[in-house]
Design goal:
Blueprint lengths: L1 H49 L4 H5 L13 H8 L3 H32 L5 H12 L7 H11 L6 H23 L4 H9 L4 H12 L1 H16 L3 H6 L23 H21 L1 H14 L1
Helix pairs in contact: 1-12, 3-12, 4-7, 4-10, 5-7, 7-10, 7-13, 10-13
Length: about 290
């Protein structure tokens, strides 16, 4: 009888300590979510509220105040005066060609580096890793001279070629890390059945590598979609400019339409946000597959 009472007396403090520990962990999790909300989601919410204000409300200094009357006219101004659809089509064209080219080239390079046993495989990988460390600003002048001689300035190719060059190294790094984890027995059995290198690459390696390829696709899309420096340097024709240039449409010598700028930024960020949230799980799986398995 006394033993059972002693056991009950010991179990109660243990249970209460477990509850306190669980509540402490739960509180820390909620604090972490709150920090993530403030640092990640709130700026987007603030930008949307900003886009619904008038210039007077924006310049009043009350950054966190709601608009008295939502100015949805800012969005119509952003679409009409900002040439939104023209710039959107240009961005879609440049981004699509870049994404397809990066996926094609990086997958072939990663396949050669990770699956072939050749002498200079690691040296080629080091070259691509060095390409990741080259700053974008250091290439502006050489590219300007090169594109001038090639007569492709003020064309979309002057943007596509550098985008491909800068996005391919990180794509090769991600894909090669994943492809190294694919068992060689799969390819050996395919060779026994008479499959060529091309069939092994297209019918075995590429279907297995879809998760990291989706990661490469999204990372390339986000980087190219928001890029401004190269586009401002190599393209000056109004008809060829990409989406980030639409902000300049609302800045004149004597006035600035801040509400329309906010609306244009919301419209410009909307495709990136939608694609990211639709494919967020694939991005996570691809990064984990390329980093951990490799």
């Amino acid at each position: 009888m006394s033993t059972s009472l002693q056991t009950a007396g010991v179990s109660r403090p243990v249970a209460s300590s477990r509850k306190k520990r669980f509540s402490l962990v739960k509180g820390l999790v909620w604090i972490l979510f709150a920090i993530l909300f403030v640092t990640q989601l709130y700026p987007l919410l603030w930008l949307f509220i900003y886009s619904l204000k008038t210039n007077e409300e924006i310049l009043s200094g009350r950054f966190f105040a709601l608009p008295h009357v939502p100015q949805f006219k800012n969005f119509t101004d952003a679409i009409d005066a900002g040439n939104y659809f023209r710039y959107l089509l240009n961005s879609v064209k440049v981004t699509s060609i870049t994404m397809v080219s990066v996926l094609l080239l990086s997958s072939m390079v990663a396949f050669a580096i990770s699956r072939f046993r050749w002498k200079y495989g690691q040296a080629v990988m080091v070259l691509f890793l060095i390409g990741m460390m080259i700053p974008l600003q250091a290439t502006l002048l050489p590219l300007m001279i090169m594109f001038k001689h090639m007569k492709i300035l003020n064309t979309h190719w002057a943007l596509i070629f550098p985008y491909i060059a800068f996005q391919t190294p990180i794509a090769v790094f991600i894909l090669s890390g994943f492809m190294k984890s694919i068992p060689h027995e799969i390819e050996e059995s395919a060779v026994v059945d008479g499959a060529s290198i091309f069939k092994i690459f297209t019918r075995i390696t590429l279907p297995i590598s879809i998760p990291p390829m989706m990661t490469v696709c999204i990372l390339t899309f986000i980087s190219v979609w928001n890029e401004y420096i190269l586009a401002a340097t190599f393209v000056s024709k109004e008809a060829l400019k990409t989406l980030p240039f639409g902000v300049n449409s609302f800045v004149s010598q004597y006035s600035v339409n801040y509400g329309a700028i906010g609306a244009f930024l919301v419209l410009g960020a909307l495709p990136v946000i939608l694609i990211y949230f639709l494919l967020a799980d694939k991005i996570t799986k691809g990064m984990v597959a390329g980093a951990v398995k490799g």
